[in-house]
Specification:
The chain is an alpha/beta fold and 302 residues long. It has seven helices and 19 strands. Bound molecules: NADP nicotinamide-adenine-dinucleotide phosphate. NADP nicotinamide-adenine-dinucleotide phosphate is lined by residues 42, 47, 112, 114-115, 146-152, 154, 171-172, 176, 232-235, 278-279.
């Protein structure tokens, strides 16, 4: 029997583990992929207080090592459901089931797809959702990035270091991402902008060979020959397995009041919950709140 099971070992889940462990409770982290969550793929973090610059990998590794040193257990298993019993909770994974007294759901988000024909067919064959993981395969080649948020801007910057040309294709005239990043991009000579444009077709036989891009105003269509397309059009929650357990909003985010969900003894932290600002700092902040609240809940029940 664990005191707290934390679903997801990203920034929010790992941060909550620090607080729970330091309050003397036993913790199990359940993670379906790798520890670190989204931040592990960030090339550089420059907006976290007191750390001027750090790679996402170094940040995630340091956080993970801190949690393991404090005594957390971690299993790499996908959670399929949670049963909220009166005296204990049961967290069921594809392989096992675990008992605990409180649960923190910090399941993060999954990548949004463009939702156009051939996207699945060319995934891994020219289409990638992670520039940090796959960018090096496109050294000296022409690629495109789809999206206009911070991830797209950072991906374009990274790719421009080793690709011959990087198109950035965005559906609006303005980027959603930070101005500082957009300014850095504008100083790169091998970046071409296709703003106010929509990707309307993904073309190729065995692999992606070109994308058709249509101007939103003129409806003129261009065909761009390229080797890779990096899709960075945001993320969506992956909370379907919890839909019978607690309240989700119309977009699938967990509804919580300061990290307390509608299910007793179950808390939520990080990007998976409904909130206004999704940043590294707010994921850490949620972790602290959910961790302390889970311990307070357990203590009240004793
Ligand atoms: P995001 O900020 O939600 O941006 C997604 C982008 O994709 C938007 O420009 C959006 O267009 C576009 N988009 C959405 N659906 C689309 C579709 N179906 N087809 C084409 N384009 C589509 O996502 P993100 O860049 O992954 O960032 C997620 C969060 O992480 C944000 O809060 C971001 O600030 C944060 N983040 C921060 C950093 C950093 O601090 N340095 C780095 C990475 C991410 P519209 O603009 O028209 O909506």
């Amino acid at each position: 029997m664990y005191d707290v099971i934390i679903v997801g070992a990203g920034t929010a889940g790992l941060s909550s583990a620090i607080y729970v462990l330091r309050l003397g409770k036993r913790v199990l982290l359940l993670e379906r992929n790798y520890y670190g969550g989204q931040i592990i793929n960030a090339t550089e973090i420059e907006n976290y207080p007191a750390i001027r610059r750090i790679s996402g990998y170094d940040f995630a590794k340091a956080l993970y090592e801190q949690v393991i040193a404090l005594g957390a257990d971690i299993e790499y298993e996908r959670v399929v459901s949670i049963e909220n019993g009166r005296y204990e909770k049961t967290v069921i994974t594809e392989k096992n089931s675990y008992k605990c007294r409180s649960v923190i759901i910090a399941s993060g988000l999954k990548k949004r797809k463009l939702g156009i024909e051939n996207e699945e067919r060319f995934t891994g064959k020219g289409i990638s959702y992670c520039a940090v993981c796959d960018g090096a395969f496109y050294k000296g080649k022409t690629v495109a990035v789809a999206g206009g948020g911070n991830t797209a801007l950072m991906d374009a910057l990274l790719l421009s270091d080793y690709c011959s040309r990087v198109y950035i294709i965005h559906r609006r005239k303005e980027f959603r991402g930070e101005k500082l990043l957009a300014e850095k991009l504008s100083r790169r000579e091998n970046i071409s902008y296709m703003l106010n444009c929509t990707i309307t077709a993904l073309n190729g036989s065995e692999r992606l060979e070109s994308v058709s891009v249509t101007s939103n105003d003129s409806r003129i269509q261009n065909n761009i020959e390229l080797s890779g397309l990096f899709v960075a059009v945001g993320q969506i929650p992956d909370n379907e397995s919890f839909s019978g357990l607690l309240e989700l909003d119309e977009n699938g985010y967990i509804i919580s009041d300061n990290c307390s969900t509608s299910a007793e003894g179950i808390f939520s932290a990080g990007d998976c919950r409904r909130k206004d600002i999704r940043q590294l700092a707010t994921a850490v902040s949620d972790g602290a709140v959910a961790g302390i609240k889970a311990c307070e809940y357990i203590n009240r029940k004793e």
